[in-house]
Amino acid sequence: MTHAADLAERARIPTVLDQTALAGARAYAQAYLNLAEASGQADAALDELDELINDVREAYPGLARVLFSPIIKPATKERLICHIIEGRGSDLLCRFIKLLNRRGRLNLLREIAHEARRLWNAKQRRYVVQIVTAHPLDDDQRQWIEEVIRSKVAVGSPLFQYHTDPSLIGGLVVSFGDHRFDLSIRSKLARIQTRLLDQRNHEIQNRRDHFSYSA
């Protein structure tokens, strides 16, 4: 590997974390959530952290590579952080991002945000309901689905997230917690195909048994 390629690899945004790093992300997430709760603005603080990730990491990947690179000095990163966040974000967010930078943990930012949101949802007895459909739903369809789910699951507060997957053909797939309900046309067709194949294999085996008996 050339020197330039080695630098590029070291600067690459990490996507796979080991268990030690994940444990660190959970610890920082809990610390951030504790501070946010103490300020009485937990939801706003979590939203702000998510917005920062979307703005910096998704919209400006070049800037993200600088912030998350292990070869860029923390002092240089802090100047960028001050320029980006100060005046736009809360004092809590600014101090927290600076802390992560000084401890070399900016690469855990996405995992920290995810874990902080999970911890807060659990504390508030909220659960995420993933709804996947072949085509986007209108407001009336979403309202009907949400009312049905609320009537079936009376515990906690559902947070609905919608996604589309054209391969479903029609229908929908609903997932929350350890539960998954596949009501898609794709799934129905797969079950029909399985039954037809089983029936065909059964008929073939019957013919073989008949010929073996005749012989």
From TrEMBL:
Keywords from the named record: ATP synthesis, Cell inner membrane, Cell membrane, CF(1), Hydrogen ion transport, Ion transport, Membrane, Transport
InterPro entries membership: ATP_synth_OSCP/delta_N_sf, ATPase_OSCP/dsu
Short name of any one Pfam family annotated for the protein: OSCP
Main location: membrane
A Gene Ontology term for the protein's cellular component: proton-transporting ATP synthase complex
Cellular compartments annotated: Cell inner membrane; Membrane
Gene Ontology molecular function: any one: proton-transporting ATP synthase activity, rotational mechanism
Superkingdom field: Bacteria
Membrane topology qualifier: Peripheral membrane protein
Role: This protein is part of the stalk that links CF(0) to CF(1). It either transmits conformational changes from CF(0) to CF(1) or is implicated in proton conduction. F(1)F(0) ATP synthase produces ATP from ADP in the presence of a proton or sodium gradient. F-type ATPases consist of two structural domains, F(1) containing the extramembraneous catalytic core and F(0) containing the membrane proton channel, linked together by a central stalk and a peripheral stalk. During catalysis, ATP synthesis in the catalytic domain of F(1) is coupled via a rotary mechanism of the central stalk subunits to proton translocation.
UniProt subunit comment: F-type ATPases have 2 components, F(1) - the catalytic core - and F(0) - the membrane proton channel. F(1) has five subunits: alpha(3), beta(3), gamma(1), delta(1), epsilon(1). F(0) has three main subunits: a(1), b(2) and c(10-14). The alpha and beta chains form an alternating ring which encloses part of the gamma chain. F(1) is attached to F(0) by a central stalk formed by the gamma and epsilon chains, while a peripheral stalk is formed by the delta and b chains.
Family, per entry: Belongs to the ATPase delta chain family.
Name of this protein: ATP synthase subunit delta
Name of the encoding gene: atpH
